[in-house]
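User: tokens in, sequence out, please.
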């Protein structure tokens, strides 16, 4: 009887296919177990890539297709004011030894006297091209100027605010951001100037670094304007 049971057991083992056998347990050492516990559950996500702003992408295509330089500069100024939340702004173009107003926008004055009167009050008289004006300094030195208060410029600066515009328009310039505009050949042909950054409560504040970076990104698109050049 015992022999029969042993022979049946041998036949069952012989009939079992090799792949059905249970795999042997992997032996783990304390070091391997500690390493598995220390391994993070997931990999941290890679930081997002900085992309150009939608304003820049859309504006670049618009300027490249705009045959009217003045209209293109108006669009550029409006976009720069929008991303920086600027109350007002101006674009100057160099014409010989003076800077002429090519685009003038001021929300406060436009509500009071209308856009046509704003252009008459602000943009009729050219600005002499000298370093002692903010726009002239930016034009000649190719340096961006960011001021918390244009009426309190440090004494070691060689430029000052051209206050006649404020007096004529009964306006008060506080914060200011001014930077050069370059054509397709890299030559500076004008100056973009923003005035009075406004916060969410309607108060004037300085132009932040982020705002300056966004405006510089838009200002670089002036090179796409066909026909714009330094006189």
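Assistant: Sequence out:
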């Amino acid at each position: 009887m015992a022999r029969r049971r042993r022979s049946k057991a041998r036949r069952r083992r012989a009939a079992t296919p090799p792949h059905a056998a249970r795999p042997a347990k992997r032996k783990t050492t304390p070091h391997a177990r500690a390493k598995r516990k220390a391994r993070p559950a997931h990999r941290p996500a890679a930081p997002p890539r900085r992309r150009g702003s939608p304003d820049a992408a859309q504006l670049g295509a618009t300027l490249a297709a705009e045959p009217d330089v003045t209209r293109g500069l108006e669009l550029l100024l409006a976009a720069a004011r929008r991303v920086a939340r600027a109350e007002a702004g101006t674009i100057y173009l160099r014409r010989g030894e003076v800077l002429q107003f090519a685009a003038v926008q001021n929300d406060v004055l436009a509500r009071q006297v209308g856009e046509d009167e704003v252009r008459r009050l602000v943009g009729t008289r050219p600005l002499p091209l000298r370093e002692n004006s903010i726009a002239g300094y930016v034009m000649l030195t190719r340096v961006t100027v960011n001021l918390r208060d244009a009426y309190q410029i440090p004494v070691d600066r060689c430029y000052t605010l051209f206050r006649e515009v404020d007096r004529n328009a009964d306006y008060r310039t506080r914060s200011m951001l001014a930077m050069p505009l370059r054509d397709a050949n890299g030559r500076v042909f004008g100056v973009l100037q923003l005035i009075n950054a406004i916060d969410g409560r309607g108060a004037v504040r300085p132009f932040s670094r982020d705002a300056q970076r966004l405006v510089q990104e838009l200002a670089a698109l002036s090179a796409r304007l066909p026909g714009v050049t330094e006189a």
